[in-house]
Design a protein that fits this description.
The protein is an alpha/beta fold. It has a single domain, classed as Spore Coat Polysaccharide Biosynthesis Protein SpsA, Chain A. The chain is about 30% helix and about 25% strand. The protein has eleven helices and 14 strands. The strands form three sheets. Strands 1, 4, 5, 6, 8, 9, 10, 11, 12 and 13 form a ten-stranded mixed beta sheet that branches. The protein has a two-stranded antiparallel ribbon with strand order 2-3. A two-stranded antiparallel sheet has the order 7-14. It binds uridine 5'-triphosphate (UTP).
């Protein structure tokens, strides 16, 4: 049984980089090939043994709530038409042992504030935070969050997913630094949100996967507004680091930044090329495409 039972999905951001697509629907409902981003994230959590899925939703997020609800009419229609495979696809969105909780973040005050909104549903246990717009694909190997659960079990401390980025991109990420413990694990001695490249402590960027101890909530309660005038999770982690060891984990897998248009397009192309139904036809299409 996994030691991490709860996953939090902060999906209350405004998604301004995808306007007008995100005017009325959440960025996390944008599809990569045939599944919304949020479903890649929940499947990753469920495969890693998590049973309680906590969604922090905003005003335009009703489609997310509907996606995780029973679809009576659709299921009845598919049943009547003997579309058993499709019925299975629809029902599998929420396996029977999974509990979904939806909490409204009434103002988009930042990722840190969104995570704080999850406190009543998380209680006093370590938990995962998964940002669905970071889609991470590990080609048949253990998922990113599964790898991080393993690190949590080994180190018994909060774990942050990290990736090497070009130094000039440091102002888009939380950046961490600290001594290496083994090939992929380091201790976090420094963590700063969106530093200027001249002030970045290393080239290790925080991406959208965290395992946090519940002590983070008290830190979040006293975290003021930081970069971008938002309540930043990174700033609360920097406070937590003063009282608990925190580990950075350089995960195995390919990350697509689906919060950006180019990352989203890359994910669609590369995942279509792996898709059992689409791969052959799509590869042929790409080969025939005049690229100049
Ligand atoms: P982003 O920094 O990608 O912001 O949030 P955003 O609002 O979603 O998108 P842009 O930059 O305007 O295009 C990172 C994650 O934190 C969540 C987002 O939903 C996303 O999963 N978030 C952010 C919240 O849940 N609440 C917030 O107040 C801010």
């Amino acid at each position: 049984m996994s030691s991490i039972r709860t996953a939090v999905f902060p999906v209350a951001g405004l998604g301004t980089r995808f306007l007008p697509a995100t005017k009325a629907i959440a960025k996390e409902m944008l599809t990569v090939v045939d599944k919304p981003l949020i479903q890649y994230a929940t499947e990753e959590a469920v495969a890693a043994g998590m049973e309680n899925l906590v969604f922090i939703v905003g005003r335009t997020k009703n489609a997310i709530i509907d996606h995780y609800d029973k679809a009576y009419e659709l299921e009845t229609e598919l049943g009547l038409r003997n579309k058993t495979e499709l019925l299975k696809v629809v029902k599998e969105v929420v396996p029977p042992h999974i509990h979904c909780v939806f909490i409204r973040q009434s103002e988009a005050l930042g990722l840190g504030h969104a995570v704080l909104c999850a406190e009543p549903a998380v209680t006093d246990q370590p938990f995962a935070v998964i940002l669905p717009d970071d889609l991470i694909y590990n080609n048949g190997g253990p998922s990113c969050i599964q790898q991080m659960v393993d690190v949590y079990e080994q180190q018994q401390g909060s774990v942050i997913g990290t990736q090497t980025v070009a130094m000039e991109e440091s102002d888009k990420y939380g950046m961490v630094a600290g001594p290496r413990i083994d090939e992929r694990i380091s201790r976090v001695d420094e963590i700063i949100e969106k530093p200027d490249p001249s002030e970045a402590p290393s080239d290790q960027a925080v991406v959208g996967r965290y395992i946090l101890t519940p002590a983070i909530f008290d830190k979040l309660k006293t975290t003021g507004r930081g970069a971008g005038n938002e309540i930043q999770l990174t700033d609360a982690i920097a406070e937590l680091r003063k009282t608990e060891e925190i580990y950075a984990y350089s995960f195995e897998g390919r990350r697509y930044d689906c919060g950006s248009k180019i990352g989203y397009l890359e994910a669609n192309v590369e995942i279509a090329l792996q898709h059992e139904e689409m791969a052959d036809a799509f590869r042929q299409y790409l080969k025939a495409l005049p690229l100049d």
